[in-house]
Design goal:
With 402 residues, this protein is mainly alpha-helical. The chain is 45% helix and 8% strand. Strand 1 (34-37) and strand 2 form a beta hairpin. The mean pLDDT is 92.
Amino acid sequence: MSSPAVPSPPPALLAARVHDPYPYFAWLRRHAPLHAERRPGRPTVWQVSRYADVRALLTDARLSKDPGRVPGYVAGPTGLNRHLVHADPPDHTRLRTLVNTAFIPRRIAQLEPFITDTASRLLDGLEHRTHVDVIADFAAPLTFRMICAVLGVPPELDDARTRDTLMATIAPAPGLDPARVEDALHALLDTLISSKRTGSSPDGTDLLGALVRAGDESGAMSEEELRSTAYLLLLVGHDTTMNLIGNGTLALLHHPAQADLLTAPAPDPRLVAKAVEELLRYDSPVRDATFRCAAESITLHGQRIEAGDIVSLLIGSANRDEAAFPDADRIDLTRTPNDHLAFGYGPHFCIGAALARLEGTLALPLLLRRLGPVALAKPADELPWRPARVMRGLAALPVVRH
């Protein structure tokens, strides 16, 4: 089948994709809802931008999560890709079942006092500071401590150096040797797993200890799957929620009337919950769905996706689709309904969604109230965004208190 000719995106929109992808997404939805990026020597990447298409393909069994189907594709750090995000059934079903127990609503709800206390302590330390970086001073340490608590990371490993090692795997600093980053990451994970085998969590209440025992006693996980799963949970349990708080705070700074809805001494919990959903939709912490490739040919919008082609489902674009969300480029903290795709949809729906939502509903109103009136410390178009492949998040969010 011959593919119809499609226009090329304007260079200015392409150049601005890291800082502000939404004009580019809008162009795709209007002019090229299925857009092929072809580069010599690399597999074709098809970008899917409309809500209805993205939601349908998130549950389409013709798309595989196995990067091994694409020769030469590098999905992540060497030896750390055997986890549930890069697995099809039955492996995905087995691994997700093992991890699910840590994220049941009852266990997540029990973290509420810890989240509130940790957030309050971090904000106590900022009490007399005029200049604050919302990412470095609040969002990053808060969300890392939360996922460390869920996994059972020993206190000596719950620090900024561990967090920096983890984040360097998706957005390495200029001049940093990727091989050294991977070596440091493997050493960190081996130390973490070893700590569980030597009995640092004898009561078995943490997730990582339970996963280590599952592998050692029943063979339910291989050693590679165990390391890969520990890496995945540390990364996404921290990064996505950090992005929610950072992106959400920036959005509210641009819309002070909306922010005022959350700064009351005791805001309505139902309103706060809706607000978090809208912030997830408006500037999603996940720009693109995680890896998928065609296991067989698929025809969409008159074009043919061949088996082995990569399919990029643009979550951020779907969440701004006017066909699904009236006035989609406007933030409305009371928006109902709000069936956004920030956590995905279907079998690979984000396993940590409940934790992210709880952190957002507790941390954002507290942050806004405790900081008081603030303004950006630099122009919005100069804020640094991390050039990660899947995520969308600020590297820093400096503000000045009035």
